């Protein structure tokens, strides 16, 4: 099993599985309940993150988050000798949640089944990071705590520093894309505008 895990990190041209398993795990779920819970959280936070970042940047961050959180999960599992599948969907969702909670720490949140109890987004993020840190340190197998932590840390880093370091450098490309898309829509090219 160690050899299979190692092929994800090699650059051997004969290896067919370089980064694609980490990208594809962004869409993988353990069960139908796992998928439903993740999709509910994504639906709850997607409008906030899209208004903060825009559609293109949201997609780029989400896919990057899946790869990064899966990589963190692989490293943690190799370090502890536990070779189980990594599901990057939860890590990508955690990135979105952490990004929104970092940008809007005073926003009020509630749990779906307990709407009478509200708490701030900043408090929720601290509790989630503490829970996943304890889970990773104590070896709990309830969730993929390493993927959650990797996703949360990436989300906090991205909205604090990454946007300026990464996305601002791609701004000319995005502007050219928007101009091209607007021109095609204006000429009756069948595209739709936002």
UniProtKB/TrEMBL annotation:
One of its GO terms (cellular component) is mitochondrial inner membrane. One of its GO terms (molecular function) is serine-type endopeptidase activity. The keyword Membrane applies. Keywords: Hydrolase, Membrane, Mitochondrion, Mitochondrion inner membrane, Transit peptide, Transmembrane, Transmembrane helix. Its main location: mitochondrion. One of its GO terms (biological process) is signal peptide processing. Its EC number is 3.4.21.105. The keyword Ion transport does not apply. Residues 22-162 form the Peptidase S54 rhomboid domain. It catalyses: Cleaves type-1 transmembrane domains using a catalytic dyad composed of serine and histidine that are contributed by different transmembrane domains. It is an enzyme of class 3 (hydrolase). It is found in: Mitochondrion inner membrane. It is a multi-pass membrane protein. The chain crosses the membrane at residues 21-43, 49-75, 111-131. Belongs to the peptidase S54 family. This is rhomboid protease. It comes from Zapornia atra (Henderson crake). The lineage of its organism: Eukaryota, Metazoa, Chordata, Craniata, Vertebrata.
């Amino acid at each position: 099993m160690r050899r299979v895990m190692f092929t994800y990190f090699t650059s051997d041209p004969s290896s067919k599985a370089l980064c694609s398993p980490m990208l594809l795990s962004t869409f993988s779920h353990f069960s139908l309940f796992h998928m439903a819970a993740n999709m509910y959280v994504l639906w709850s936070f997607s409008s906030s993150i899209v208004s903060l970042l825009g559609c293109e940047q949201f997609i780029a961050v989400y896919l990057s988050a899946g790869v990064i959180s899966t990589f963190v999960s692989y490293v943690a599992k190799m370090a502890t000798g536990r070779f189980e599948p990594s599901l990057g969907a939860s890590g990508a969702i955690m990135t979105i949640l952490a990004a929104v909670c970092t940008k809007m720490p005073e926003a009020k949140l509630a749990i779906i089944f307990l709407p009478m109890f509200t708490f701030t987004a900043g408090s929720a993020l601290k509790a989630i990071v503490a829970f996943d840190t304890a889970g990773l340190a104590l070896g709990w197998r309830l969730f993929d705590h390493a993927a959650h932590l990797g996703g949360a840390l990436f989300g906090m880093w991205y909205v604090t520093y990454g946007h300026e370091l990464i996305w601002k450098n791609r701004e000319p490309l995005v502007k050219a894309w928007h101009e091209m898309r607007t021109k095609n829509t204006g000429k009756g090219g069948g595209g739709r505008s936002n």
